[in-house]
Prior knowledge:
The protein folds into 3 domains: about 1-155, no CATH class; about 190-245, SH3 type barrels (Roll); about 250-335, Alpha-Beta Plaits, CATH 3.30.70.100. By secondary structure, the chain is an alpha+beta fold. It has 10 helices and 10 strands.
Amino acid sequence: MQNFFNQIYFGNSIAEYVTAIGIFIVGILIIKILDKIFLRRLKKWAENTETKLDDFLVRGMQRTLIPLLYFISLYAAIKYLNLDKRFEKYFEIASVIIFTFFVLRAVTSIINYLLKAFVDKGGGGEQKQKQIRGISNIISFVIWVLGFVFVLDNLGFRVSAVIAGLGIGGIAIALAAQAVLGDLFSYFVILFDRPFEIGDFITVSDKSGTIEHVGIKTTRIRSLSGEQLIVSNTDLTNSRIHNFKRLEKRRVVFKIGVVYQTSAEKLKEIPEIVKNIIMSEPKAEFNRGHFVLYGDFSLIFEFVYFILDQDYIQYMDTQQKININIYEEFEKQGIQFAYPTQTVYVNKNG
C-alpha cells in the first residue's frame, strides 16, 4: 500500500495528489458550512432590520466572497503540487485574471450601492434613477478599463507606452471638448450638491421657470410664459440661483398712505387695524407696522408680514385678501387713502 502512494506521476506522488484533493474538499466543506449556516442566518437577520446596508453586505458575500473562497481552495490545492513550469505560468495568469475580476466586481458594486443610496436619501425619482444608472455605467467602465490595464501590467506586458499615448490623447481630447467636459463636471455638481431638483421653481438672471430635466450637458426649464429654456449646466452653476421651492416663508413689505386730514386718534388705530387683518389669515404671520414718514401728499405707514407657504398662487391669494380687507375696514372707519393732490391757498388781500 505504501508503494502505491509513493508512485510518481507528472512530478507528484499519489499521496501528494490525495493530499491536494483533501485540501480542496476540506475547503469546500468549510465554505458550505459558512454559506449554509452562517450566511443564511445572517441573511434572515438582515431581512428583519430597517437598514439596507446589511442586506447589501450579505448579497455581496454570496455573490463575490463565496465564489472567491472556492477559487482560493482550488488555488491552495493546486499550489501544493509540484507543477510544470508552463502549466504553472498559465495557472498564475488565470489566477490573476480571476482574482482581479472578483475585486473589480466588488468595487463596482460598492460604488453603485453608494450612488443609489445617495439618490434615495435625497428622494430621487425615476428621472434621477436613470441619471444614476448612466453615471454608474461610466464609472464601472473606467474601473474595468483600469483593472484590464492592471492585469496586463502584472502579466508582463509593457503598458507604460500605451498609457503615455492615452494620456497625450486624453489631453488633446480634453482641450478640444473643454466646454462639454465643463458641462459634465457641472452636472456632477448639480447631482451631488443639489442646488435644485426637478420640479423646483428657480430664477436665474432674468429667467424664471420650473426645472423639467437635468441632463449631462444642459438643463431644461419651463418658463412662466410657456416656452422651454435650455441652459448649459456650466451657466447654471456659475450663476446666482433663486430657488423658490425651498422658500419656507415669503417676506412681504407694503406701504399705505392716508390723507393729512386724518385725525390723530385714527392714526393711532391704523397699525392695530392692519395687524388684526393680517393675523386673521391662517397663512400670514404679522411682523410689524409703523407710521414711518410724512410724505409730500400723504402720511405713510409701513407694514411687514410673512406668507407661511412657498406656493406663489397662495401668496398672491393671501395678499389679495389682506388688501381687500384693509380697503373695506378703512371705508368703514372713514379713513381715506391718499393720492397725489395739491391744495392751492389764495390770499385775497394780495
